[in-house]
What we know:
By secondary structure, this protein is of the alpha/beta class. It folds into 4 domains: about 1-15 and about 150-235, Phosphohistidine domain (Glucose Oxidase, domain 1); about 35-140, Enzyme I, Chain A, domain 2 (Orthogonal Bundle), CATH 1.10.274.10; about 250-270 and about 430-578, Phosphoenolpyruvate-binding domains (TIM Barrel, Alpha-Beta Barrel), CATH 3.20.20.60; about 275-425, Alpha-Beta Barrel (TIM Barrel), CATH 3.20.20. It has helices spanning about 35-65, 65-80, 85-95, 100-115, 120-140, 165-170, 190-200, 235-255, 280-285, 310-325, 360-365, 370-380, 400-420, 435-440, 440-445, 455-465, 480-495, 515-520, 530-540, 545-555, 560-570, and strands at about 1-5, 5-10, 10-20, 155-160, 175-180, 200-205, 220, 225-230, 270-275, 295, 330-335, 385-390, 430, 450-455, 500-505, 525. The protein is globular, with a radius of gyration of 27 Å. The mean pLDDT is about 95. The structure holds phosphoenolpyruvate and magnesium ion. Magnesium ion (MG) binds near residues 433 and 456.
Amino acid sequence: xxxxxxxxxxxxxxxxxxxxxxxxxxxxxxxxxxxxxxxxxxxxxxxxxxxxxxxxxxxxxxxxxxxxxxxxxxxxxxxxxxxxxxxxxxxxxxxxxxxxxxxxxxxxxxxxxxxxxxxxxxxxxxxxxxxxxxxxxxxxxxxxxxxxxxxxxxxxxxxxxxxxxxxxxxxxxxxxxxxxxxxxxxxxxxxxxxxxxxxxxxxxxxxxxxxxxxxxxxxxxxxxxxxxxxxxxxxxxxxxxxxxxxxxxxxxxxxxxxxxxxxxxxxxxxxxxxxxxxxxxxxxxxxxxxxxxxxxxxxxxxxxxxxxxxxxxxxxxxxxxxxxxxxxxxxxxxxxxxxxxxxxxxxxxxxxxxxxxxxxxxxxxxxxxxxxxxxxxxxxxxxxxxxxxxxxxxxxxxxxxxxxxxxxxxxxxxxxxxxxxxxxxxxxxxxxxxxxxxxxxxxxxxxxxxxxxxxxxxxxxxxxxxxxxxxxxxxxxxxxxxxxxxxxxxxxxxxxxxxxxxxxxxxxxxxxxxxxxxxxxxxxxxxxxxxxxxxxxxxxxxxxxxxxxxxxxxxxxxxxxxxxxxxxxxxxxxxxxx
Length: 578
Ligand code: PEP
Ligand code: MG
């Protein structure tokens, strides 16, 4: 079976499907007094079956020389004899007269909540084991099939899900996850963006057809073409293995550009920097040839934790990211951009009908100046150690920019009073991702130090097309002439004020876009670390004035396909870089 989706992160992955399903909690069904013994016996039988299964898994792993993993499952067997846990479930069956699966589930929830509340990392990890093993017993009680256990297969797995949240994606282990495929999402969903920085091939927006895939089936993911093959024939596997090695050879060719300066054919320099979400991304991007950071998505520091990061924790993360590049390299730190597809339950924000048009990013920060200031102080302090610049996201009006700048000045005054070091003249800029800001670029350019164009949002707002909706991918195209005109206008407005312009939307690393952005005079290109070397190789083949003429020509066109054809007719070799 061949399925077509939206190519989200390049690369070819071959592995076993692991279909991610939200496990429903069992229903709390009442039982009659005379059913108590039967229910207790059902529980005992399910525990016996789970125990046998675990024993078998342990034996199998030991036979394969994987004693360490075998021990995990031996540990699970011990939980099945745990007096507290099982005793609690038995008492609930007897006293509350509920079915065995609900009793065990509730006993597990109580035990897990208790362990998770403790300040002990080891015990908190045991909570995950208890959840795991009781779910196995519950599946036995419900006669449900066991999902693929990634610890048991030697093959890497391909995650299949309706949707992956950005924090779930950030927690994926690239060693174990060969790729992922989701039913929803678009090219600029944050899970797709994260997949690119983790180097995990991914396809999104496959729609309902994805649910025909079954757990354990062999899958091929072609992240460049957006193609998923389910249960491929042997000759298809051979062809894809060949294709994977060709892509690897191409990547080797780009690797020659990792350590070169970023210059065009006619000798003009540009900056090729990376989009990161963590200090670990910074290290990977530096290895990939990035000259610094054009966008640190700091909101990822806030996700997947029980409390907000402190000033100190943030400061350390910023300094660690900068350390990957050295003291002179530019590090653009964007203040928290929660909202849209990036949720932060800790902030307890009400659910919204239109989260991308809602209460997000700078709008929240301006409402909570103390919260905002914690981050600004951390960034400012990091500026004493590195060439840090501050960037505000989602600025829609002059007033928002001025208010954000005023809070920054307050944070500076506080640090000054405390005698803390920071760079007073650190550059402060804004993202241009709201059409309102793009249209006001001439006014904004008089006050900011730089712009960074965020096309992921700018495209969706300009074309009124949700970036997560796979049905709108044709509108969500940065080569839409309306978007190109706005970008051109922004770059010109900044140039008139002598300010530099970068781009940190995904467009900045797309081979069709790079020539025209160069021609329009873009100075800084910020992208996933994986695309830096390829883009540098491409830029080395481009002449700035020729690209200026090409940009002028495409600005006259009326349709993204015409734009693409014009670029390809001028640069027929460009396809090699796709
Ligand atoms: C953008 O909107 O282009 C951008 C870079 O920000 P994010 O993708 O985090 O919304
Ligand atoms: Mg954005």
